[in-house]
Amino acid sequence: MSDNSAYWKANVSLLIKCLVVWFLVSYVCGIALVEQLNQIRLGGFKLGFWFAQQGSIYFFLIIIFYYAKRMAEIDREHGVNE
Amino acid sequence: MSSQQMWTYAIVGATFLLYIVIALRSRAGSTSEFYVAGGGVNPVANGMATAADWMSAASFISMAGLVAFSYKGYGGSVFLMGWTGGYVLLALMLAPYLRKFGKFTVPEFIGDRYYSNTARTVAVVCLLVASLTYVIGQMTGVGVAFSRFLGVSNEMGVVIGMVIVFIYAVFGGMKGITYTQIAQYCVLIFAYTVPAIFISLKLTGVAFPQIGLGSTMADGSGMYLLDKLDQVVQELGFPIYSETPQLSHFNMFVYTLSLMIGTAGLPHVIVRFFTVPSVKDARTSAGWALVFIALLYTTAPAVGAMARLNVINTIYPTEISADAALEYEQRPQWFKNWEVTGLLKFEDKNGDGRMQYNADKETNELSINNDILVLANPEIAQLPEWVIALVAAGGLAAALSTAAGLLLAISSAVSHDLIKGVISPGISEQGELMAGKISMAAAICVAGYLGLNPPGFAAGTVALAFGLAASSIFPALMMGIFSKRVNQTGAILGMLSGLGVTLWYIFGHKGIMFVKGTSYFADSNWFLGLQPEAFGAIGALVNFAVAIVVSNMTAAPPKEIQDLVESVRVPKGAGAATGH
User: Fold this and answer.
1) What is the dotted CATH code of the domain comprising B3-310+382-454?
2) Between residues 189 and 228 of chain B, which touch chain A (CB distance below 8 Å)?
3) How close is the nearest chain A Cα to the Cα of B41, in Å?
4) Each residue's pLDDT tens digit, B504-556
5) Distance from the CA of B546 to the CA of which of A40, B260, B304, B312 falls in 20 to 30 A?
6) Contact at CB, A30 and B214, closer than 8 angstroms
C-alpha cells in the first residue's frame, strides 16, 4: 500500500479550516455574539438574527461545495482520484 | 362533497398514481439494487431524494409554527441551524468515507471496522430503536393529514399510506424509494413555496419569502416587517420576536450541537450516500441535499413570522387593545374551518364576545396550534382551492418519503446485518433479496400497527431518535474513520456508555421507557440546565472519551483493520469496492 499520509494531512487541514467557519457562522454569530451583532442592520434584519435563521444555512452550503471542490483538486494533486 | 374536497382528492390521487407508476418501473432485481439502488444515482438526484428522506411530516407541517410560536422567533433558531448544520458534518466527516467503504449498511461498517459482530449488533439495536420511534411519527402524520384534508378516519388514512409505501418499497427497495422520493420532493417543495410566495407578496410585495422577511411592509407604512412584528408581539406581552432567546446561550449551544450530530448520525440519511457512483459524488451530493433542504428551511421561518403577523392582524384589525379585538361572530371563514379540528380554540373568559389574544394566561382567550400556520396559510391568504389541496399532497409526500427511507434502513438492518451478517452468512443473493423484501413487508406492518396504536411514549420519540444517533452512531462512525487506534473494546464500551448516559438522562426527565410517574430527577433539566432533548451531544462526548481511554489501555486493532482505515480515507478504487 502506498503512503497516503501527505494526502490525509492536506484533507484534515482543509477539514479543520471548514469546521472553523462552520462554528463561527452558527455558534458564534448565531448564538454567542448575537446581541452584539443585532446592533448592526441588514435591511430589515438584525444581523445576529439573520445569521441564526438564514445566514448560517447559506454559509453551510458554501462550506460543503468549497470543500468538495478543493478536495477534488487535492485528490488529483496526490494522484488518488477515482 | 365540497369542491375543496374534490380538488384535494384529485391532486392527492394524482400524486399517488405517480408514485405507483414510478414504483412499477423501478423494481429491484438484486441486493445491490434493493439496498443502494445499484449505486448509480446521480448526485443531484440523490440530493433531492435525501431532502425528501430527511424532511418529515413535522418539518413540513410543524416547523414554521415551532419557530414562530413555540420558540417565539429567535429561540427557534436552534432547530434551523441544528437540522441543517449536520449536513456539513455529514459531507466532511462521514459520507465520502462510508461511500468509499462501499457496502450496504451503517452497522456493516461498524461491524467490519471494529471486527466484531457484537459491535455490529449494538449498532443494529441503536438503528432499530431510532428508526422505529421515528417512523411512528410519520405514520401518525399520514393519518392526521388524511383525516384533516380528506375527511376519512385516521385509521383509514394510515392503512392507505401503508398500502402505497408497500407497493414501492417492497418491490423496488432503495431503487423504487429513490425515484419516488425525487417525485415526492418536487410535490412537497412546490406545495410549501407556492403559499409562501403568495403570503410574502401580500405582506411585503417581495416574491421571495427569505427576502420579504427583511423587507418593508406593503401597507404603505414604510416599516420593516420584522420591526412591525417585534412591536405588535411586545404590545401583546410576548417576547421580542427577533431578539429574545428562550434558552440560555449555553443550552442553545448544546441543543444545536446535539441536533447537528444527531442529524449526521441518522442511518436512514447516511445510507442515501451509499447510492452515488463515487466518493467525489458523495461530497457534492451532500451539498445538493442541503440546497434542497435549505429551500424549505429558509422559507419556514419567513412563513412562520409572516403568518404570525397575519393572525395578529386578523384578530386586531385596527389597533391592539382589548376593545378592538375581533368579535367572535365576525370571525373569518378559515377560522371556522379550523376551529372544527380543535387546532384553534376560543374561550370567552370575560364574556364580551371579542377574541382577546395575548401572552397572559389569565386573560388570553385564544389557543393556536403550531400546525395552523402552515395548514391554514393558504386560506388565510385567500388562495385558490387547488393550492389548499396542494398543501395536503405536500404533507403526505413529506410523511411518506421519510417513512419509506426509515423502513428501508430498518429492513436492511434486519436482512443484511442480522440475517446475512450474523444468523445465516451462507444465504444466497436471491435468498437475501427475498429476506429483504419480507423484512420490508414486516417493517411496514409493524410501523402501521404502531401508527394506529401509538405507544404512550410516542411524544418523546424525537428526543430519543436524535439522542441515540448522536450518542452512539455518530461517534462510532467518526472514530472509525479518523482514528486507527480505536479498537473493538473501546468502540463497544464507548457506544454503550454514550447510549446509557443519554437514556439515563432522557428517562430521568420523561420517565423510564416514557412511563409517566417513573421519572427520577426531581429538578427539571437537572444537568447544567440542559433539556433532555439537548443531551445527545453530552452522550457523544462520553462515548468519545470512553472509547479513546479504553482503546489506549488495550491492544491496537490488527494490521488489516488499519489497512481498511487507510483505504476508506482514499477515494481511489471506490468503484472496485462495490463489486458484488
Assistant:
1) 1.20.1730.10
2) 210, 213-216, 224-227
3) 17
4) 998 888 777 777 777 888 767 778 888 888 999 999 999 999 999 999 999 99
5) B260
6) no
Residue of A nearest to B209 (CA): A54
* Among the partner residues B81, B243, B284, nearest to A30 by beta-carbon distance: B81
C-alpha distance from B222 to closest chain A C-alpha (Å): 11
- d(CA B509, CA B499) in angstroms, rounded, equals 16
Residue type, B302: A
What residues pair up with B367 in beta bridges, in sequence order? B345
Alpha-carbon gap, residue B36 to B405, rounded angstroms: 11
Cα torsion for B272, A78, B578, B288, to the nearest 10°?
Answer: 20
pLDDT digits (tens, 9 = 90+) for B282-294: 999 999 999 999 9
Q: Could you write out the DSSP letters of every residue in B54-87?
A: H--HHHHHHHHHIIIIITTTGGGHHHHHHHHHHH
- CA B433 to CA B422: how far, in whole Å? 16
Residue B252 forms contact with A (CB below 8 Å):
yes
Which residues lie across from A46 on neighbouring strands?
Answer: A41
What pLDDT score does B558 carry? Answer: 97
| Range 229-248 of B in CB contact (< 8 A) with A | 242-243, 245
Q: Are B180 and B170 in contact (CB under 8 A)?
A: no
Say which of B96, B227, B570 has its CB closest to residue A44.
B227
Q: Report yes or no: B556 and B485 within 8 Å, Cβ to Cβ.
A: yes
- The residue assigned the cell 401572552 is B359
Of B87, B99, B123, B88, the closest CA to residue B543 belongs to B123
Find the Cα–Cα–Cα–Cα dihedral B208, B187, B141, B174, rounded to 10°.
-130
CA distance B18 to B404: 16
* pTM (two decimals): 0.95
User: For residue A28, what is the DSSP state?
Assistant: I
How far, in whole angstroms, is CA B462 from its chain's centroid? 9
Among B188, B195, B193, B190, CA closest to B398: B188
* pLDDT at residue B458 is higher than 60: no
Beta carbons of B104 and B110 less than 8 angstroms apart:
no
Q: Are B240 and B69 in contact (CB under 8 A)?
A: no
Give dist(CA B24, CA B395) in Å, integer: 23
Q: What is the ipTM of this complex?
A: 0.97
Q: What is the pLDDT of residues B134-163, one digit of tens each?
A: 888 888 888 877 877 777 888 898 999 899
For chain A, list residues whose CB is within 8 angstroms of any CB belonging to chain B.
1, 4, 7-8, 11, 15, 18-19, 22, 26-27, 30-32, 34-35, 38, 42-46, 49-50, 52-54, 56-58, 60-61, 63-65, 67-68, 71-72, 75, 79-82
B290 in reach of chain A (CB within 8 A) = yes
Distance (Å, whole) CA B564 – CA B97: 11
* Positive/negative CA dihedral, B184, B186, B188, B191: negative
Q: Which helix (H) or strand (E) holds A42?
A: strand A41-42
Distance CA B91, CA B291 (A): 13
B68/B368 Cα distance (integer angstroms): 12
Find the length of chain B: 580
Nearest CA in chain A to B278: A82
DSSP letter for each residue of B326-364: PBGGG--HHHHHHHTTTSEEE--TTSSSB----S-TTT-
